[in-house]
Amino acid sequence: MSDYAKPLPVPSPISLPFFEAVKRHELVVMRCRSCGTCRLIERETCPECWSNDYEWVRASGRGSVYSFVVMHQRLHPAFAGDIPYNVALIDLEEGPRLVSNIVGCPNEALKVSMAVEVVFDDVSDELTLPRFRPTFA
């Protein structure tokens, strides 16, 4: 186990393929085989057509900032050294929205609709987290 002290997600049986892919530095989404809707919802039923027939497919890793907040208060002791830090909602090109952080960009430069791409943060030997950085295409 690493010295990473921040809270980490605990993969469930449904989300495990997502975390296994991120560990390989791949971003995946659930795609409904019945209607084609992509999602990152931790349930097996499609929210559009109610089908339980889905597959995990590789995502482009590109998206845009839907919204963000810059945290100035310590809500957990492990984040004290990171203040101020951002938490962002990323709209992936494939449709799903993902909660993450924007890296490689000062908080003052963050903007809604900013184009971003995934980067992978190997936070421990067991877990990798997707983060996002701005793209200037």
Query: What would the principal axes of the Cα set say about the shape?
Result: globular
So, CATH architecture?
Beta Barrel
How can the largest sheet be summarized? 5 strands, antiparallel
* Broad CATH class: Mainly Beta
Task: List its traits.
137 residues; mainly beta; OB fold (Dihydrolipoamide Acetyltransferase, E2P); 5-stranded antiparallel beta sheet; 3-stranded antiparallel beta sheet; 8 strands; 36% strand; globular
Per-chain topology:
Layout: H1 16-23, E1 28-32, E2 38-39, E3 54-58, E4 62-71, E5 85-92, E6 97-100, E7 115-122, E8 128-134
Antiparallel strand pairs: 1-2, 1-3, 4-5, 4-7, 5-6, 7-8
Overview of the structural elements:
With 137 residues, the protein is mainly beta. 6% of the residues lie in helices and 36% in strands. It has one helix and eight strands. The strands form two sheets. A five-stranded antiparallel sheet has the order 6-5-4-7-8. The protein has a three-stranded antiparallel sheet with strand order 2-1-3, with helices on one face. Strand 7 and strand 8 form a beta hairpin.
Short synopsis of the structure:
By secondary structure, the chain is mainly β.
